[in-house]
C-alpha cells in the first residue's frame, strides 16, 4: 500500500486520492475520539469534534489540489486572505488539537502516510497520558470565590482556615474598597477575590454555607471556570 501511495507521481490516480482522503478521515476521527474521552464535556463539545474532522478532510483535499503548483499555492493564499475567521478559541488545549488535525491534513495531502500515522498515534497517546497525569483538567473544578466584607470584619483567621480545609490551594488575586452608600451605612466595605481549587468537587455547597455563617460577610459568589473558560455563577 505504501508503494501505491508514494508521492513521486505528478498526477496521482483517483484511487490514490480516494485512499488518502479516507485515511485522513480515519486519522482525524481518531484524534476527535481522543479529544472526546480526554475532555470535560460542555454544550459545544460535539460541534468542536465535528469541526475537527471536517477541517482535517478539507485541508487534505486542499493540499492535494495544490500539489507542486506555485500558482495554485499563491491563489489559495489570496483566497484565504479574503476570509475572516472570527471564532474565539479560549482554551489553548483546543488549539493543540486543531494543529494536530492540520498536521494530518498536510501530511496526507503530500502523501506522507507514514508520518501522518506516526504523528497521529503519538499525539493521541500523549493526550491520554495527560488525562491520567497530575496535570489533568478533569480531576477538580476551579472556581473564583468573591464576597463582600464590612469594615468591622475581624475573622481573617476563620476565612483562611475554611479555605485551607476545603481547597487544595487558594490565592487572593484582587481586593477592592467599596465606598459607603445608602444601603451600606457602616462605612467602607471590601470585596475579596480568590482563585480556589476544591479538594472535592461536591464540597462547594459546604464551603458556601460555612462562609455564609460568618458575621460581616455578604454577597458571596462562586464562579465556575470550566475547561473552555466558560463562566457560570453560583
Strand tally = 5
Strand order of the largest sheet: 2-3-1-4-5
Structural class: alpha+beta
What value does the Rg take, in angstroms? 26 Å
Unreliable spans are 227-234
Please give the count of helices: 7
In whole angstroms, the N-to-C terminal distance is: 57 Å
Strand residue content: 15-25%
Give the helix proportion (percent range): 40-55%
The SSE string, one letter per element, is: HHHHHEHEEHEE
Mean pLDDT: 78
State the domain count.
Answer: 2
Categorize the overall geometry: elongated
For the biggest sheet, the summary is: 5 strands, antiparallel
Description:
By secondary structure, the chain is of the alpha+beta class. Helices cover 50% and strands 18% of the residues. The chain has seven helices and five strands, in the order αααααβαββαββ. A five-stranded antiparallel beta sheet has the order 2-3-1-4-5. The protein starts with 13 loop residues before the first helix and ends with a strand. It holds the Pfam family DUF4956. Keywords: Membrane, Transmembrane, Transmembrane helix.
Amino acid at each position: 500500500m505504501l508503494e501505491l501511495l508514494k508521492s513521486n507521481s505528478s498526477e496521482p490516480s483517483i484511487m490514490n486520492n480516494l485512499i488518502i482522503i479516507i485515511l485522513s478521515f480515519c486519522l482525524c476521527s481518531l484524534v476527535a475520539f481522543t479529544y472526546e474521552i480526554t475532555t470535560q464535556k460542555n454544550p459545544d463539545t460535539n460541534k468542536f469534534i465535528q469541526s475537527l474532522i471536517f477541517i482535517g478532510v478539507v485541508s487534505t483535499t486542499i493540499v492535494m489540489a495544490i500539489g507542486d503548483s506555485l500558482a495554485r499555492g499563491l491563489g489559495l493564499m489570496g483566497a484565504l486572505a479574503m476570509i475572516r475567521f472570527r471564532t474565539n478559541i479560549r482554551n489553548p488545549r483546543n488549539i493543540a488539537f486543531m494543529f494536530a488535525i492540520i498536521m494530518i491534513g498536510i501530511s496526507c495531502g503530500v502523501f506522507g502516510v507514514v508520518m501522518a500515522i506516526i504523528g497521529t498515534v503519538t499525539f493521541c497517546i500523549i493526550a491520554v497520558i495527560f488525562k491520567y497525569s497530575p496535570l489533568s483538567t478533569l480531576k477538580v473544578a476551579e472556581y473564583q470565590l468573591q464576597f463582600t466584607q464590612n469594615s468591622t470584619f475581624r475573622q481573617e483567621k476563620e476565612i483562611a482556615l475554611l479555605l485551607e480545609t476545603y481547597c487544595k490551594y487558594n490565592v487572593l488575586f484582587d481586593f477592592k474598597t467599596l465606598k459607603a452608600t445608602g444601603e451600606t451605612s457602616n462605612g467602607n466595605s471590601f470585596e475579596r477575590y480568590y482563585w480556589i481549587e476544591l479538594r472535592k468537587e461536591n464540597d462547594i455547597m459546604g464551603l458556601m454555607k460555612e462562609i455564609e455563617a460568618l458575621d460581616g460577610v455578604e454577597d458571596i459568589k462562586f464562579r465556575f471556570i470550566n475547561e473552555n473558560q466558560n463562566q457560570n455563577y453560583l
